[in-house]
Every structure is written in C-alpha cells, then in structure tokens.
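Problem 12. The chain below contains 150 residues. Write out its predicted structure in token notation.
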Amino acid sequence: MTLDEIDFALLRALSANAEQSTSRLGEKLGLSQPATWRRIRRLQNAGVIAGRRLVLDAEKLGFGVTVFLGVKLATKGRVSLEDFERAVGAIPEVQTVDHVLGLYDYRLRVVARDLADFERVLRRRIMALPGVGDVEANVLLSEERRPGPL
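Solution.
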C-alpha cells in the first residue's frame, strides 16, 4: 500500500487524538467527511491502523510505581518461551511483555501501588515463574510521551 501526504497527516491527527470525528478530521485536512471516512477505512483494511486503545493514567488509578524488569530465563531448553509468555502475561500488574535481544530475554513493564506492592509482585508472582533466572529492575522516575515516526 502506498501512503500519500494526506494519509500521513490523517495518521498524525488520529495519533494525537483518535476520538476526533471524521468531519473534524476532514476540516483539518481539506477533505469531505465521506472522503475522510473512506481513507480511514482503507488504512484499517490494510492493517496500517491496527486499532484504537484507551490510555489510562496508572497513577490516578492508584498505581504510583512503574518498574521495567529485564528477565533472563535460567534455562531456555526447560521452559518454552510461549509458556513463560503465557504465565507472565496472566499477572495483572504486568502491562507489557517484550521478547528482546541482548542481556535479557524479556523486558516487562510492571505497575504497582508502591514499592512494597512491587516487591510482593516480584517475589510472589514473577520470581515464582518457572525458568526465571536473573532479573534487573529499573524504576521509572518520569516519562515523556513522544509521537511516533510520522
């Protein structure tokens, strides 16, 4: 699929605020509402727009600590990657599970109410998973959301 400048402008506008109406988007881009809708539909059908999601403020929901964990599996042969991913994905405090190259096999984003709550999640849930070897924790101090490469 070939994207033109209007497609990229539409994607930038939707990335900034996916709740905008097609009429409002069309006004910004100099398109009619039906033309804007057809472009969005074409981008969805092509898989360029994979979905929309709700972004929650974890801190306002009572989760004041975010920790990035590097997890190295102790023995790759004994525990399948799929089994680890399924088990760690079932832990509600684990927001993302990224299989990565480098020093660690996985990078996890974990939220907790406070450091004591994080320690409980780490000891009772994550470290108890089969195959978990080395773990490195990095506490998030601040985060700046940056737009994608569009």
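Discussion. The beta strands are 65-73, 94-99, 106-112, 132-139. Students who got a different answer should revisit the alignment rule from Section 12.3.
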